[in-house]
Design goal:
By secondary structure, this protein is mainly alpha-helical. The chain has 23 helices and five strands. Helix 11 packs antiparallel against helix 13, helix 16 packs across helix 18 and helix 17 crosses helix 18. The longest helix has 24 residues. The protein is globular and about 80 Å long. The chain starts with 21 loop residues before the first strand and ends in a 30-residue tail after the last helix.
Length: 530
């Protein structure tokens, strides 16, 4: 039995059903009724069938997981309640989207399909192409609206930031009401994770789904938690409370980017009138956060413009550079938080348990995997995607490539995982919480416990480092810079900049091959997930 009732036959209609063709609103990564233009457009056109398709093949992909599905499932339960109050409950079906749409067409007739554009992974991209072909074949108009700041079929990045500002400033579409109930269609139920073959991943501390949870986070961040945001976002010790934590709600669409942007602007306007002493660091914090909303869409635009970057390096010189073997013990140590590098392992274990970690730690974890451990970015990227409750393909794969040095244009950032611990968790509180094997290690040794004389007797079960991280870093830099110095590298890199580089001041791409060059403090490593 599912959360929405007993399982019923997958019927989409019966003899008592009305004969009026349906305007289908296909919900995907937009699980809300507020600021939902496809829904409003459909309501103005005729009888509306709100539809969500649970796609088995999607949930069997290597970048999807139970934790993500549970967040979506909770959000769908809430969405169904909202649509029921509006007059017509959400209809849920499990199967192939094209097959289910065609069954609706044959049984009831489809006047139009309405949805938001989606910048998803390669699978959803291919699925949307099939849906487009189906619509064309049967003469059904498919009305797609922009979901956020991403622009489809963008010819040039010139003026992109200004267009983002204009789009976000447009009026929020109100939630509809008075939907005409559709007779003869069973609303259906949402399957349990096990019915989809999803493996339990024990993310007991993940954020709950649903719009109400998202609205609560938005308010608390803008009015209560967000003042230390700018200075607290880098450390996992403080970031969990100081960051907005809105990323899963934006990724799955329980809130729209426009809603968040406008709420932030309204709060900034309010703070303008506050005396400096009362405003504290609020103004800087929200200015920083507002900028990161731009950056979120900026990185999604990269995948929209070039879908293959999920599978191929932006700069082809880096394809096949690293170890992609399935049986690499270094991958297993990294993926389970057992590398013997305490801060790195604490970050991985925290992510496994909660489905979230701040951006700087995501960058470090990816960089250590790609440089020190010399693991292929595709495999490690899929592992992290499964762990992220807020997995957003457009941001994820762009960032995976940036942190792995495969864009050919960004500054090479080889994090020192031990130094990061000293800087971000100086007292070792975060380490002791997530690596309890080190609970008795004195603070002076917590970041390098293998140097403590009692390590072998007091820290049973926790390994010594799987490698010399300093030596591994030097070797990785030599390999990367050898590629950057190769013939033709710069010419291809210029083409990457022309296609993906931002034209907004302050958002710059680095093409230097000088290993001594240090990126500016205002470089493009932004906290895109916070």
């Amino acid at each position: 039995m599912g959360a929405l009732g007993r399982k019923k036959p997958l019927e989409l209609g019966n003899k008592k059903a009305l004969t009026q063709p349906l305007h289908i609103v296909w919900f995907k990564r937009d699980l809300r009724i507020e600021d939902h233009r496809p829904l409003a457009r459909a309501v103005a056109s005729g009888a509306v069938l709100p539809l969500y398709v649970v796609e088995r093949d999607y949930w069997a992909l290597p970048d999807t997981s139970e934790r993500q599905y549970l967040f979506v499932r909770e959000s769908l339960v809430e969405l169904r309640g909202q649509l029921t109050l509006a007059g017509q409950p959400l209809v849920v079906r499990t199967g192939d989207a094209v097959e289910l749409l065609d069954r609706l067409r044959r049984k009831r007739g489809v006047a139009g399909l309405y949805s938001h554009q989606e910048t998803g992974n390669g699978w959803t991209y291919a699925r949307d192409l099939k849906v487009k072909d189906w619509c064309t074949q049967h003469g059904i108009p498919w009305h797609e609206d922009r979901q956020g700041g991403v622009i489809r079929r963008l010819k040039s990045r010139e003026g992109w930031a200004r267009r983002w500002d204009r789009h976000m400033a447009e009026a929020v579409t109100p939630a509809p009401h008075g939907l005409e109930p559709i007779e003869g269609i069973d609303p259906g139920e949402l399957p349990e994770p096990a019915e989809l073959g999803l493996v339990p991943d024990d993310c007991s501390a993940r954020q709950p789904g649903g719009r109400e949870a998202g609205l609560s986070l938005l308010y608390s961040f803008l009015h209560e938690r967000g003042e230390p945001y700018q200075r607290a976002m880098s450390s996992p010790v403080s970031a969990a409370s100081a960051c907005s934590r809105l990323s899963p709600h934006l990724a799955h669409g329980t809130l729209s980017v426009r809603e968040v942007a406008q709420a932030t602007w309204a709060r900034q306007k309010e703070l303008k009138d506050w005396p400096a002493r009362e405003a504290g660091t609020w103004r800087r914090a929200l200015s920083s956060f507002s900028g990161r909303l731009h950056w979120r869409c900026h990185f999604m635009q990269k995948l929209e413009d070039e879908p293959p970057i999920e599978f191929k390096s932006m700069h082809p010189a880096y394809d096949g550079l690293r170890d992609a073997a399935d049986d690499n013990p270094l991958f297993d140590a990294w993926a389970t938080g057992m590398t013997g590098l305490p801060f790195l392992d604490a970050c991985m274990r925290s992510l496994i348990a909660t489905g979230w970690i701040n951006f700087r730690m995501r960058a470090m974890m990816m960089a250590v995997a790609s440089y020190h451990l010399w693991l292929d970015w595709r495999r490690t990227g899929e592992h992290m995607a499964r762990l992220f409750n807020d997995y957003e393909p457009g941001i994820h794969w762009s960032q995976v490539q940036m942190q792995s040095g495969t864009t050919g244009i960004n500054a090479v950032r080889v994090y020192n995982p031990v130094k990061q611990g000293y800087t971000q968790d100086p007292e070792g509180h975060f380490i002791r919480r997530w690596v309890p094997e080190l609970a008795t290690v004195p603070t002076d040794y917590i970041h390098e416990p293998w140097t403590w004389g009692q390590f072998d007797t007091e820290c049973a079960g926790y390994p010594r480092p799987v490698l010399d991280h300093e030596q591994a870093a030097r070797a990785a830099k030599e390999k990367i810079f050898a590629v950057r110095r190769s013939v033709g590298h710069k010419d291809v890199a210029r083409a990457v900049v022309a296609k993906h580089g931002s034209r907004k001041s302050g958002i710059r791409q680095h093409m230097s091959t000088n290993k001594r060059r240090k990126p500016k403090k205002t470089d493009n490593q932004m906290s895109l997930f916070d």
